[in-house]
Structure formats: C-alpha cells, structure tokens
Amino acid sequence: MTRTAFAFFFFLFALSSFSQQEINGRVLYMQTRKPVVSASVTLHPVGSKSILAYTVTAKDGSFTLKHGHLPDSVTLTVSAMTIERQSKTLKSNAEAVELLVAEKAMELEEVVVKAPKIRQTGDTLNYSVSSFTDETDRNIGDVLKKLPGVQVLSSGQILYQNKAISRFYIEGLDLLKGKYSLATQNVDASKVATVQIWENHQPIKALKDMDIPETAAINLKLKDAAIGAFFATAQAGAGLPPVLLSNEAVGMRFTRSQQNMLVYKGDDTGRDISRELTAHYNTLGDSQTNFLSVIAPSAPSIKEQHFLFNDAHIASLNDLRSLKKDLTLTSGINFMYDRQKSSSLSKQEIFPNQSDTIRIQEDMDARLLKRELDGSFVLEENTDTRFLNNTLRFKGSWNTKNSGVTTDEPITQYLKQPSFHIANEFEYILRKNDKRNSVKARVEYISQQHSLRVSPMLFEDLQNDDSLARQEVSLDRFSAEASLSRNKNIKRISIGYTTRVSFNRYLMESNLYPGFDSRPPADSVQNRLCRSETRFIVSPSISYLTPSAFYASLSFPINYLVLNRNDKVRDIKQNEGHLLFFPFFVTQYPFNSRICFSSNLSFSNDIASVNEDYLGYILTSYRSMNRNDGLLPENRRTSAIANLSYKNPNTTLFMYLQLGYDILWQNMLYGVNYNGILSSRTNILHPNTSHNYRIGYSLGKSIDAINSEVKITGGYLRSTAIAMNQGQISDYSSDLYSLSSNITTNISRKVIFKHEASYQQIHSKIRDNKMSPVNYFSQDISTALTPLKKLTFTLSFNHYFNDMIESSARSSWFGNVRAKYRMKNVDLMLDWTNIFNTKRFVTASYSDISSYYAEYSLRPAEILLRLRFKIF
Amino acid sequence: MSKQKRYLNVLFLLCISPIPLPITANAATTDDDAEKIRILYQSRQQVSKDGVPCFITDTMALEVGQNHSVYYDFNQAKRDSIASSLTDVSRLQTVNLVNDIEYLEKMLESREKPDIILSDRDSESSRIFKDRSLQEIITADRDHHSYKFVVKETLSFDWEVSADTLTVLNYVCMKATTRFRGRTYTAWFATDIPVNDGPWKFYGLPGLILKIEDSEHVFNFEAIGLKKIADFTVGQNLAPASQRINLTYDQLNDYRRRRHKKLSYGFYQSSSSITFFSGIDNPVTYPDMEIK
C-alpha cells in the first residue's frame, strides 16, 4: 500500500512538473464581433520579442497556446493581414482571453523585383536600357557609354571587351554599314528596349560554326511601340556671339524588313557633327595617299567645343529594304560640308645631338574646307547555305586647306586635295553540308590631283621673282583582285585554301613650279612614275573547334609579288620578284562561361609602297622637301597579343587584361636634315628594330548600393626606337602609364553626378638623357539637378593639368551650364558654354626626340538656345 | 539508316507540345482573403548534369490571403508562349520520327543543339494550393493539357523556433527548423508580415517565411519581391472533376521523376519539315524534394 501510494504521488508530481500551461482565448473583430480566422497569436516574455508559443486562430476565432513553463506575466500578440496588430500583457494563469481587434489593412513595405540589368542567353548579352538610363541621357550613345564591358571611344567607335565591334544592327539589320554613329547620336534611348551584344558574331550565316570571329556585334532591340513607327524630330538653335546656329532634322523608321534614316544637321557651335559620318567598319580602305600637307595647328586634347571654330553641314540618306526573304538592298548617301578655323602659336625644339637644338616657332592661322560626298549600295543574300554580296561604293572629296604661318616672315600655304574613289566588291559563298566554296572579286579606281601653293618660297635654290612655289602631285590607281576559296569540315577540323590574284597599277606625276612658270626648272623636282604590283597568293588554312568552344585557327598566306617600277623622268626600269608571308594564328579558349582567353600571333614582311618610290623632290610642306634614294625599303613585323576577359552578367562585373608586343624590323632608317627650319628627308641602309610593349586593363561594373556605373581603365605602353636627325642616329624610348575612371551616380532621382578623370605619366629618354616625367591630368565633373519634373540644370567643369608647362597655364578650367525644359513634344535647351571665358589653352609634350609647345585660341563664352520638337 | 518517314497532321504535334489548354478556374478567394500579397521567391535546386553538380533556378510566386494561398511558377505563362511559338505547328507539313543514334550524333555535330527539345523540364510544373484554416494542401500537376493530377494532404509542421535573426528584404526574420519528408529545413520568417505561409508546402509559423533551405543545401527558396495585389492571378486551375486523377504524393513524385528522364530532340529540316529523335537520356538528374 505504501509503495502504491508513493508511486501514485510520484506520478502526480511528475505529471504536474511536466504538465503544460494553457492560455485559451478568442479573437473577434471589435465592431462586428465576428471571429478573426487564421490570425497569428504569439506569446512573448514581457518586453521581449522571443516567442514562447504560437498558434493560429480557428474558424470560430478561438486559440489555445500551450507552453511548458510560463513566467508570471506574458505578452500576447495577435496579428493578421486584415487587423491591426494588438498586444496585451496578462497573467500566465489567465483563463479565457477575449481580444477585440480593429480591422485594418496590413502595411507592407513593398519590394519590387527589378529585371536584372544584364541577362545572358547563350552568346547574347542583353542590357536593359531603362536600367542604365538617367534624366540626362538623350540618345542611345549616351547609354552605350555606361554599359559595363562596352567602351565608346572619342571617335564614336564602340569596343566590347577591348575589341572593336564588327557589326552594328538595329532589329537585326545593318542599315548604316559602319556609319553607326548616326544611330548612336540620333536614335532616342527611350525607343530602345535592349542593347544586345552578340559575342563571337559571324555575320555570314553560311559560315556559322565554321569560322568563329573573335569580335562581337551590337544589336538594338527596339520597344514594340517603336517598331514600324516613323519618328521625325527637328531642332532649331541660335546663339551669340557673333551668330551661332545649330539646326537639325532627323527622320527614321525601323521594321524587321525595311529601315530608313534621314539626317540633316547644320552647326557652327563647335559640336563636331561631321564625326557622325565616320565609317567604323566597311570603310573604303586607304582611299587617299597624301604627299602634301600644310603646317596647321593640330587639335589639342580638350573638348572640341572649346577650340573648334566650325561651320558644318551634314546630310545622310539611308535605306534598307528586304527584296525577299534573306535578300536585302542597303543604300546610303552622305554629304558633308565643313569649314573649320584654327589658330595657335607653336614652338618645337628638336635635339639632333647633345649640343644642338633646332627651334621652330610658328604662329599659325589655318582654314580647312571639307566637301565630301560618298555613297554605297549593298545587295546581300544571307542564308544558311548561300551568301551573296555585291557592294558598290564611291567617294568624292573636294577639300582645301590654307594656312598663314608667321615664322621670321609671313608665309601662306594653300593646299587643294580633290580626289575620287570608286570600288565594287563581289562575294559569293556556297555551303553544302561540310564543304564551302567562295569566290571574291574586287575592282577599284582612285584618282587624286593634289596641289600645294606656298608663298614665299623659302628654299633658296627655288626662290623666284614671283615669290611663289607650286607643287602638283597627281596619282591614279587601278586595282583588281579575284580569289577562290574552298573549305571542308572534317569533324572538328576545318581545312581550306584560298588562291588569289591581285593587280595594282599606280601612275604618279609630280611637278614643282617656282613662280608662275608652267615648266618645272629641273628634272630633280619632277616625277613621272608607273608602278605595277601583281600578286599571286596561296593561303592554306586549318582551324579546330571543340564543342566547349575552344577554337584555334592557323592561316599561312604565301604571296609572290612581281613589282615593276618605271621612272620615266630618270628612265629607270626595275622589275623584281618578292616572296612575302603573312602567317597568323588565332586561339580562343573559354575556361568557363565567365573567363575567356584569346591570343593572336602574326608575322608579316612587306616592301615599300608608292609613297617611297619617287626620286625627284616634292615640296611636301612649306618647310620640307623630300625625295627617296631609290633603295627599296623592306620591313618585317611580328606581333603577339594575349587577352584575358572576364564577364559576369549577374554581378555586372566585366574585366579584361591585354598584353601586347610588337617588333618592327626595317632595313632602312629615315632621317631629317635641318637647315634652319627647312628640312629634307634622307634615308640610309641601316637595319633597325623598334619595339612596343603594351599592357591594358579595364573594369566595368554597376554598383547598385550607390546607384553608380563605374569604369576604370589602366595601361602601360613602352616604345623604343631610333631616329636620325642631321645625320646623327639617336635612340629614344618612352614609357607611358595611364589610368582613367568614369563614374555616373544617381544620387537621387533628382541629382545625377558624373565624373570622368584621366591621368597619364610619360617618361621620355633621348639617348642617355632622361627627361623629367610629364604628368597630364584631365577631369570632367558634371552635376545634373532636376528640381521640377520637367526641368533639368546641368553644371559641368572641364579641368586640364599639364606639369610640363611652368606658368600658371599648367592648369585650365572651363565651366558650362545647361538648362533643359521638357514639354510634351518640345524640349527647350539653353547652353552657356565656357562661362569663365577662358581664351587660350596651352599644351606641351615630348615626341621622339623633340619637344612641342602650343598655345591655342579658344571659343569665347557663348550662349545657345535650342528648341527640339517632335514632328511625329 | 533506319529512318521512318511518316506524314502526320498538325494534331500530332499539339499532342506532344507542352502547352496546357485553358481550363476552368475556380477562384479560391473568400471574404477572409480581402487582403492579398504576392511574394516572389527565387527557388534554387542543385541538379546533376552528366554527374557534375549545377544549379537551376526558378522564379516562384506565392499569392496569399488570410486563409488561402497558391504557389506557382511565375514565368510559366511566358515560357509556354515561347514554347508555343517554337512549336508553331501550322506551317509543318512533314514530321520525321527517327530512332537512329548515329544519325542523331551526326545532326548534333553539324547543328550543335536541337531546335526543339520536348519533355525537358522548363519550369516548376506543380502548383500548390493551401487552405490553412483546414490545414489542407492540394498539389496539382499537369500533363500536356491540364492540371489533372491532384494530391490532397492534411499537413502540419512541427516548427522549432529559436532566437537567431537574419534580415531578408529589409525584414528582420526569426529562425525556425523543421523536418519534413526526409530533409531538415531551416526557415527564416518575418513576424512583421502576419501571414503564416511560405513557399512550397511550408506554413504554420507566426509570420511569413522569407527564406528556407534544407541542411544539405539542395533546395533553397528566398524571397526577392513583395507586393500587394488586388486579386489572385492564378485561380484553382484544376481540370474538371471528372478528368482529375487523385494520387498520393508518392505516386505524384514518381510521375515527376519519370517525366523528364527521356527527351525528344527536334531539328528543323526546312521551315515546313522537322525530324524528331525520341528516347534520349536526359543528361540532367533532378533531386527529389520529398524523399519519404
């Protein structure tokens, strides 16, 4: 009995010590007294957030909370989506608790999921344009500059991971054939949904998977509403002093089968609109061979708006239409008229040897008139099995330059450079399963009649009563080329060869007339040359591609050149044959989807061009007369480039590292002999090599934590070579370190801050003399404020620093203000440029064995009011 | 080369295309669900592709009211429309069915990847409907047409809440752990969002689960967005009762496991002709979430 009683009491004791405490209750709406269903009920220690017990209310609003051991007082909290959160402190032994709660919609701190800024699908990177656009961006070029991995050079050329893009498409079509600045400067960013980068883009469908290019292409994907719509905008602008005009009319329409773009711009405010017509690919090649030049100010490295006195007009008509599926006809006609003025005072010091210094001081005032008309018509069929392309291009230019130079006396120079160029190229590729055959042909004709007039003539032997010299040079070139290629894929290996025959014929004539004489005074100032080059080229090639995208390709063009040169003045005929090689080896190895290694190795040997054929003197500028010695210059170049690129679209981090090395061997050394400021070129047989070492690094990233797009670029360049002056050979070298950064920060929706900085340090060494290092620094600081929804003020400063200059001019500041007011269909822009009215800019630098100093006259403070309106 | 050539009508491809037909919708809303929010989760699972572990990610949406919720693949509709444009069958006149592995290898060598892959997993196909007041969870899965496979379960979770905290999407979350069908999960829930729901089948904490992961890091769900919504965008889109097939969760898991084991590759020969290779082993093995 005792034992049983003990056991019973022990059981009761155990039960009580393990038994749970319970709190029961109900949750009801205060007003209706209806039960609150599925509300969370939690029990906390008083003043603490930790949870002792929790439950949810049942259909009748009742709940039961159980817990092993509760403190004397506890806090009961009830919450639900439809009620106001309520807490009540009560004794833990409380019996039925009734909570009356007020109805209230839940407050939620919403978190909007943003589409990733950059998405990758296969070989395509998609940059969401809206994620990179801010209040100050107008055209798509403004946005392209900010995209991580993409660089836009000052020429307008676009690079992706440090390699120039090979194509620029709008909705998959190449309307502008290389003149894509027209698109980047005129297509409104708000019309573009996505900028796509197509990596390793092969524009020829029939070569897909056979030939893997290293370069990428850009494609603009428009917003659905922008496809097929016709957009037309016009701008009228006027300003002071004296009279400034900035007008434009732009119309465009893009569909996936037909595209048009019409642009007219006229501007004399220092904004260089002519750059929009630069072709970044599909160029006509080295269309001009310039023998003559005028001494005129070279452009300083500051924003052109501060120094460019221009009056430019451009017109561009572009049309692309699909004649049938995969067959397109693209036409483009462009005209440019540009009148530029520039003036500067420059001082050049040349150090031919330890003791001598040649000083050239020139006060220059130059005028340039450019009139250029070019056009292209491209018919292209591009299918998986067949590629056909016929491109007809022409370009005519009527450019003149005149420059007044004051050295000891005033000298005038007038150069006329009319030239005409026409070319037709044809290409046909046929692919049948693993084989492909292609035929290419090209015919080209260039004619140029250049003349330079100098007054007075400084070269004593040619001085005359008219105090004038006229140098005329004409060059006609005809070239034709035909090639045949065959390729076969055997599993992963592609083997092929190309045979090519090309023919180039040059007719060059030059005469130097002293005064108004119509006959040159001597044979030594005349040239009548005929040069013909016939090349037979065989180029075997082999490439290897694995499914993991490792790609290696070796080509070995062997070129037999038959060269005929005939100097009709000196009656010298030379016929010779040369064996030339141009092997190149390309590899690409993606370690994974992020990191890729690529390399390029090449070798070439070549002989001199027509520029080095002439034996009679040519007055190439008012202070130099040049001729060649009849020796045949030869050169050999080896170059190696290694690239390591990294991309991570998820983190938006893009990086590349590039190492490059070039070695150039030449059998001849060119030199300059000075007589006062007058110079003549000499060349001697003196084999020499020059070396170039490069390291480049770049990083781009969106840092969302500070709403910023950041880019950093660094580089190192070392060059070593020799130069000859006054018959003395000197070696020189330069080491250039550079670092630049670019950051755009959206401090808030109303404040945007941009900072661009660039630093360069150059160490030059001439013979054994180390020059003191020169430091260059430039920065652009800009802040845009949007106090009202439609109104934006932008304040920007440009700062340039050069410590080679010893005066206060080593640091220059420019200030600019812009106000922009947006209405529904009209934008009003008021610009006040160069607000400090900075009137001159000084620059100084070293180049090979000379130093250079220049003072430029600048545009004064200017006010410009522009009205931009949408017509459609 | 054993090449069977057949002419098939358009209906054939409709049969094998992964596009569900529209079906009746029974809205799950009641007055209690007056307030509704949508939470987007990034759902990540570790799969094995040819033996190499890699991750696949889905964007899942959980739409919750006071009593009900629905959990579904947020991008499924978009994927279906892309798939339907790829399998635009109206222009197809010829469909070749081939079982020749050598021919397939040759095609893969020259074309690198197929134009169409059928039976591959392109999204999370299950939709999960909860009625928390009844502790009832309905998992619905689809064949090519409709959500006809239905598993009805009554589930409650035994959560152990601890004092650790973690901030997810600016909300301070508390830690809780539970064991569910062979895996141990750690959840982080926000008491400031008084919704006792969460991704997949998880629920029952005094706050919304913003992050949950199993101890072996095979499955991970993390909230990436929160938004109030006016109405549920996905109703209880189940097939009509007469067509529904009630399954146990074991049977449904079995179906899910088998569904992506074999693939079919389609190569367009021209715009009107396609060649299909079927019975190809899927290089990807998907893990089971619910083991036992």
Briefly characterize the structure:
The complex is a heterodimer of chains A (872) and B (292). Chain A has 872 residues and is mainly β. Chain A has 5 helices and 48 strands.
What report would you give on this structure?
The complex is a heterodimer of chains A (872) and B (292). Chain A is mainly β and 872 residues long. Chain A folds into 3 domains: 18-101, Immunoglobulins (Immunoglobulin-like); 118-223, Ferric Hydroxamate Uptake Protein, Chain A, domain 1 (Beta Complex); 252-374 and 386-391 and 400-518 and 536-870, Maltoporin, Chain A. Chain A is 4% helix and 63% strand. In chain A, strand 20 and strand 21 form a beta hairpin. The longest helix of chain A is centred in the first third of the chain and has 17 residues, at 2-18. Chain A is elongated and about 125 Å long. Chain B has helices spanning 10-16, 76-86, 101-111, 249-259; strands at residues 3-6, 36-49, 52-64, 68-73, 94-98, 116-118, 127-131, 136-141, 149-154, 160-168, 171-180, 183-190, 208-214, 219-229, 245-246, 262-270, 273-281, 284-285. Chain B has one domain. In chain B, strand 13 (208-214) and strand 14 (219-229) form a beta hairpin. With 292 residues, chain B is mostly beta strands. In chain B, the strands form 2 sheets. In chain B, strands 2, 3, 4, 7, 8, 9, 10, 11, 12, 13, 14, 15 and 18 form a 13-stranded mixed β-sheet that branches. A 5-stranded mixed β-sheet of chain B has the order 1-5-17-16-6, with helices on one face. Chain B has 4 helices and 18 strands. Chains A and B meet through strand 2 of A and strand 2 and strand 14 of B.
